[in-house]
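STRUCTURE:
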């Protein structure tokens, strides 16, 4: 989901470059609802190609072939999408021009050959630029309807959240990425520290994989936190982020969703590389303790000091770093170990 939401920035760039064109969007069925009422797209194509086997691929070919496109932009360019696009080309319906993450077949345009960043968003931006498409959109853009905004307004009123006076926490991650979680006790302590600094409430936002984490944080933080897990959808999270004072989260798909707002965001990383996983946008700062075992991508921590990468980033340090970032200061308090910070394409 994170890669998809980040890619909406480049969808916006393509739409801006060709405002009169009919643009179709191909995505997985699970994400189609995010774009069902999006005025940028004339048609949604969402057959199940990940688990659908040959039948799913044949359905994809039949649905895409009828488009007879002038331009096809592959914003993922993984083995599956390259294979499917190759089949489409062999069928004679591969489009006049194709853009991907590699400047070779089946693509006509790709990123600059000296690209060193291993980030899908950077590759997509460079590939679009190589094709002459300006890339001015700074972060993801999801279409939010008036009904969704009305639901958020009611939820905020019910939960005692006032615009500009609350901070959003994104404390979860997918179950397989447990090491990416900063921890319920640390988030609860951060909520109390923010309350002492004048933040009225923190709002806990997440999905099914972090229900227990949000409950535990709400229990530990008491009146400082309100648990919105399960009470807001993906699009509603964007509206909540738009009106928040700041957002703090782990390396999680919901961080990419909330980065569709211009609100300052601090992402806490440890086992995953912040250069690769942080949401795109100049308002996003990803931080990480500079220790030898960082970016391990392990499923469980093998170190004697379990999750030391997360322990080092204490709630007291995070609250100071967040306040600095809110005011646009690209510095943070001393920690005892070096800290890496990445914002935009800089560090």
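SEQUENCE:
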């Amino acid at each position: 989901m994170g890669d998809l939401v980040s890619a909406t920035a480049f969808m916006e760039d393509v739409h801006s470059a060709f405002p009169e064109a009919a643009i179709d969007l191909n995505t997985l069925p699970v994400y189609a609802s995010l774009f069902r009422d999006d005025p940028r797209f004339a048609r949604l194509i969402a057959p199940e190609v990940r688990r659908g086997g040959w039948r799913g691929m044949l359905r994809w070919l039949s649905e895409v072939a009828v488009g007879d496109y002038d331009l096809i932009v592959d914003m993922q360019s993984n083995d599956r999408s390259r294979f499917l696009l190759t089949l489409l080309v062999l069928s004679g319906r591969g489009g006049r021009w194709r853009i991907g993450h590699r400047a070779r077949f089946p693509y006509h345009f790709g990123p600059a050959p000296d690209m060193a960043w291993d980030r899908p968003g950077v590759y997509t931006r460079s590939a679009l630029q190589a094709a002459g498409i300006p890339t001015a959109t700074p972060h993801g853009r999801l279409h939010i309807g008036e009904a969704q905004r009305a639901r958020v307004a009611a939820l905020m009123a019910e939960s005692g959240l006032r615009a500009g006076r609350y901070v959003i926490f994104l404390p979860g991650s997918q179950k397989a990425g447990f090491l990416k979680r900063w921890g319920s006790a640390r988030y609860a302590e951060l909520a109390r520290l923010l309350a002492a600094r004048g933040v009225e409430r923190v709002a806990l936002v997440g999905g099914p994989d972090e229900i227990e984490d949000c409950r535990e944080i709400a229990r530990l933080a008491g009146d400082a936190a309100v648990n919105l897990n399960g009470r807001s959808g993906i699009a509603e999270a964007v509206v909540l982020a738009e009106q928040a004072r700041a957002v703090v989260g782990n390396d999680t798909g919901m961080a990419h969703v909330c980065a569709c707002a211009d609100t300052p965001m601090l992402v806490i990383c440890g086992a995953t590389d912040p250069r690769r996983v942080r949401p795109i946008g100049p308002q996003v700062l990803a931080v990480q303790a500079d220790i030898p075992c960082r970016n391990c991508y392990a499923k469980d921590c093998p170190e004697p000091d379990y999750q030391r990468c997360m322990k080092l980033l204490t709630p007291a340090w995070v609250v100071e770093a967040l306040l600095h970032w809110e005011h646009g200061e690209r510095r943070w308090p001393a920690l005892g170990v070096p800290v890496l910070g990445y914002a935009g394409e800089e560090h």
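REMARK: Residues 147-343 form a domain with the Rossmann fold fold (CATH 3.40.50.2000).
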